[in-house]
Write a structure and sequence with these properties.
Blueprint lengths: L11 E5 L3 E6 L6 E8 L6 E5 L5 E4 L5 E3 L5 E4 L2 E3 L3 H9 L5 E5 L12 H10 L1 E7 L2 E4 L3 E5 L2 E6 L4 E6 L13 E5 L5 H4 L6 E3 L3 H6 L12 E3 L15 H14 L6 E8 L3 H13 L4 E4 L3 H6 L9
Parallel strand pairs: 4-9, 11-18, 14-18, 16-17
Antiparallel strand pairs: 1-10, 2-3, 3-9, 4-5, 6-7, 7-8, 11-19, 12-13, 13-18, 14-15
Helix pairs in contact: 1-5, 5-6
Length: 310
């Protein structure tokens, strides 16, 4: 790994201006949870705090991922926080480097099933630039992982691009796009990605609840699909909402690497498990990435993710 020298014109780290609160339910636990987002100092990263467990903390990092069954959970020191991916995706989208996420229960609230409520919550209190330079993970050679016929790959790219193919043979899914390629030099995360919601087939709900998952799932926090139609009365938010939600998840899972990526992601049927397998594989390959800072002039020519507001 190489950390390049910084200059006074380097991009700076960001946090929020003041604390902000939200109350919701955990989509898997079905339990009510209060969440408080708090500003954090430079180089803190994203840290989850369980106020119900004596303010025990868990670092948001790929190595701390402990469960990927229908969501991404992280654990440290014997404590867990579940369903972190949508919030992590929103933090990437708003270029937030440092934040304390305080919860009084085991799961991040699902809100409406997308990242949009987290984006709006953060923008309601504002974002502040800090003095420390922002760091990126630049991919220097391809890294690929597979599981069956599913695959996930990171490769060098001057910017950040995500290419995802969603595979599902179903009368509803077959009516909508299953592939998306987004270059974030040209695409606004806030406008084009963050509102994409979780989705699922209603006949699979009983099976999920049988393993104590989706206990809080409803049409208020997911797109429900029966054998022939979408059950939500307002339909989809994007024509390609299904594949865009998969992209949203990928971004959140990869932000657990600790810094934004400079590179390209290719996913074919990948889910939380394979996304984390890819992140861990990258971390094991010291020759596959370097830690860099990006100057403002360079950033203008190579947008990695434009700092965004609603």
């Amino acid at each position: 790994m190489i950390c390049k020298e910084v200059t006074p014109q380097m991009l700076r780290q960001r946090t929020i201006k003041r604390p902000v609160h939200a109350i919701g339910i955990g989509v898997h636990s079905g339990q009510k949870v209060r969440m408080t987002l708090r500003p954090a100092g430079e180089n803190t990263g994203i840290v989850f705090v369980r106020s119900d467990l004596g303010h025990a903390s868990i670092r948001a990092h790929a190595r701390n991922v402990s469960d990927t069954t229908l969501a991404t959970s992280i654990s440290e020191h014997g404590m867990q926080v579940a369903t972190v991916e949508h919030l992590m995706s929103a933090l990437w989208g708003l270029s937030i480097d440092n934040l304390i996420v305080e919860l009084n229960n085991e799961e991040v609230p699902i809100m409406d099933g997308s990242a949009a409520p987290f984006v709006y919550l953060i923008n309601s209190v504002g974002i502040v630039e800090q003095l420390a330079e922002k760091k990126f993970i630049r991919i220097t050679r391809p890294v690929r992982v597979t599981q069956g016929d599913s695959s996930a790959t990171l490769e060098p790219f001057d910017g950040f691009e995500v290419d995802y193919t969603f595979v599902a043979d179903h009368p509803v899914y077959n009516r909508y796009p299953k592939q998306a390629l987004l270059n974030f030099a040209e695409t606004s995360y806030v406008q084009e990605v963050c509102r994409a919601r979780s989705f699922g087939l209603v006949h699979e709900l009983e099976q999920a609840q049988g393993i104590r998952r989706c206990l809080g799932s409803s049409l208020e926090n997911a797109v429900g699909i029966d054998d022939y139609q979408i059950l939500n009365k307002d339909g989809l938010r994007y024509d390609d909402e299904f594949v865009k939600h998969k992209l949203l998840d990928v971004i959140g899972d990869l932000y657990l690497l600790g810094h934004p990526l400079v590179g390209r992601f290719h996913g074919y049927k990948s889910g939380h498990a394979l996304n984390n397998k890819l992140a861990r594989a990258l971390l094991r390959c010291a020759d596959a990435f370097e830690i860099v800072t990006v100057g403002k002039d360079e950033y203008a020519d190579m947008p990695i993710q434009a700092p965004a507001t609603a």
